[in-house]
Design a protein that fits this description.
The structure holds two protein chains of two kinds. By secondary structure, chain A is an alpha/beta fold. Chain A is built from 14 helices and ten strands. Chain A has one domain: TIM Barrel (Alpha-Beta Barrel), CATH 3.20.20. Chain A starts with a helix and ends with a helix. By secondary structure, chain B is α/β, with parallel strands linked by helices. Chain B contains nine helices and five strands. The chains are: A alpha/beta, B alpha/beta. Chains A and B meet through α8 of A and α4 of B.
Amino acid sequence: MNQQQWETLVAVIRGETLRPLPTAFIIDSPWLPNWAGHTILDYFTDERRFLEDNLKAIRAFPRALFLPGFWSEYGMCTEPSAFGSVSVWEPDEFPFAKKVLRSPAEVDHLEKPNPRKEGLLPFVIKRLQHLQAEIEGAGHQIRFAVARGPLNIATFLMGTTEFLTALKTDPERMHRLLEIATDYLVDWIAYQRECFPSIDGILLLDDIVGFVSPRDFETFGLPYLKRAFDTDVTVKFFHNDAPCKACAPLLPDAGINFLNFGVQHTLSDMRAWTGGKITLLGNLPPRDVLAAGTPADVERAVTEMLSAVEGHSRLIPSCGGGMPPGVTSANIEAFIATVDAVTG
Amino acid sequence: MSEFRDLRNAVVRGDVVAALAAVRKALEDGDDPLHIVSEGISPAMTTVGRLFEEGDCYVPELLMSARATKEVFAVLRPRLAQTGTKPVARVVLGTVQGDMHDIGKNLVGALLEGGGFEVIDLGVDVPPERFVAAVRERQPKILGLSALLTTTMTGMKTTLEALRGAGVREGVKVMIGGAPVTGGYSQAIGADGYADNAASAVDLARRLIGAEPPQTAEG
């Protein structure tokens, strides 16, 4: 993200209504490598391709903000890898992390990893450090520390069914697990900031908060998210494209000021639930429209989405989730052009 | 619907201990195991599914109800076998190859079982050939395919192709579900149906085989 794009993002988060509105998308391995003509595994393992693919997208769509920008990631494997989780790689599939905890009792033996030395985390940092000069030479900077959220990490370690069940059957141990995950997360975010002083934002991704009740979110989600976001940065960006109604009213209490959510809710509902305190990034259907539709479908759906929401402050049009596989350049162009036309 | 009220309430609350106590009492009282399923468990899980669809029940609560159902069925299954009771239909479920997510599949499995279906769960990361073998050997009326990722949902298409290639596609209804899956995708790959949540998967399964809808646990 270049300086002007960053200032645009911050201006919207601070409440300025820009005309036209900026368009932004979360881009990462599900979309970018295939769009650029590579396999996902090549994208993960080849630093040059990682750099070139990101620059190619930025240059192809100079009007779009790509978030978090040069996202150094290994899919869902990054954070669990430091706990000893086996990462499974297919040539052109999203990798996955195998569970490391076979029962809630094993939490008693779980140790907080060291993000400087363990798992794939040093690789995440080194990839960016190796490319930092070129990224900055192209006019961009590393702006975000990025990580999966505490509940998400817990489910990678235990399994989703097991973790969500244990919230009811073994809540004390699940608090202990979330404490360890959050301590680790705090260290990991701090280390990213230490390595890249240009970082002035945090992006946490945690769909698991979408599965629990308001009471469980208050108990098992909010305290840990609050701690993870408790850092002096300008942008506190959260992604949850599972249902978001139960947690939405409490997200401002976690310090979050920027939210990407799914297609289950409208922009107007989300604005009401969050009290208008959070800038919304969303929420065109990513797969049914942005990936599967034609440019005309995208134009129609973006127009409807923007017409349905009253006032365009604290709003950045995007899709409801990250950019999904298979989105064409023509559909992205149609999205940006429609936002320009409707909000210009 | 006062009969089996304790059992139904325990299943809806996800209270395993109370559910087991209620089912054991019902058996001691001489109640027919099939009657316990049709009037106790099935309406309870229908209620849980409805509460979930309406946003009044969340995944952990649903999992607890599923757990209670599973424990109760472990008690009832031998009795049902003794009486020669047949399930509504046999369903084979699995998460497609490359995908380790089990939450959706597990919820669907629990609700189907609560609805009187026999469920054979193949687990996660299931290759097409295992689905083919299960259809051939277990002869289910329904095959349920789950995927959570856009990058793995293509495994559904591959599995359907494998079923066709093996000549077993015609004998089984295939339903699909999972976060990235849509009705359009279901049609495009030639599945028989798509459900956008666990509760509607049970309705879909019933529709696919022409079974009667169950009653709910109100009252």
